[in-house]
Design a protein that fits this description.
Layout: H1 2-29, H2 34-65
């Protein structure tokens, strides 16, 4: 059980890396305006909200049709 807990902790930390690393890389390495960070995250959120349900319905329909 401790091994599973340890693996879960590593997994959770890996999930939070893009939220910290992406803005850092955009601003410090690519010299982008901090506004671009907001644009990237807002665009990502809008795309997820817009397409999550249709893609899920499409996937479940195609899986149900498979023999």
């Amino acid at each position: 059980m401790r091994l599973l807990l340890g693996a879960n902790v590593v997994y959770v930390f890996c999930l939070s890396v893009p939220e910290v690393a992406l803005p850092l890389v955009l601003v410090t390495q690519l010299h982008a305006s901090p506004v671009w960070v907001a644009v990237v995250f807002v665009t990502n959120t809008v795309l997820v909200v817009a397409f999550q349900v249709p893609v899920t319905v499409w996937m479940s329909a195609s899986r149900a049709a498979a023999p």
